[in-house]
Amino acid sequence: MGLLVSVATQILSKSGRDEQATLVTVAGIVVVLLMLIEQIGALFSLVYTTFGF
Q1: How many helices (H) and strands (E) does the chain have?
Q2: Angle between helices 18-51 and 2-14 (to 10 degrees)
Q3: Which one of 6, 42, 43, 52 counts the least CB within 10 Å of its CB?
Q4: Is residue 39 part of a domain?
Q5: How many folded domains does the chain comprise?
Q6: Which long-range contacts (CB under 8 A, 24 or more apart) does 30-34 make?
Q7: Which domain holds residue 44?
Q8: Any domain includes 40
Q9: Is 43 within a domain?
Q10: Distance between CA atoms of 41 and 18, rounded to whole angstroms?
Q11: What is the dihedral of CA 7, 8, 10, 11, to 10 degrees?
């Protein structure tokens, strides 16, 4: 995911679209954070079921 965002940002920056490059970077960060939150939720669920809380 980071590689795709990086390539897209570089292409947009080289073509003079710095605002869109910034938006692509922010969107990439948001998507990764949403994926991370989902995985952390699954981890906590696994810990709770493992230790019987």
Answers
A1: 2, 0
A2: 170
A3: 52
A4: yes
A5: 1
A6: 31/1, 32/1, 32/2
A7: 24-53
A8: yes
A9: yes
A10: 35
A11: 110
d(CA 10, CA 41): 33
Cα 38 to Cα 41: distance, rounded to the nearest angstrom: 5
Two tokens at 52? 């019987």
Q: What angle do CA 24, 25, 30 make, to 5 degrees?
A: 95
Q: Please state the length of the chain.
A: 53
Counting residues of the chain whose pLDDT is more than 90, the rounded percentage is: 92
10 contact partners, CB below 8 Å, separation of at least 6: 21
| Residue 10 within any structural domain of the chain | no
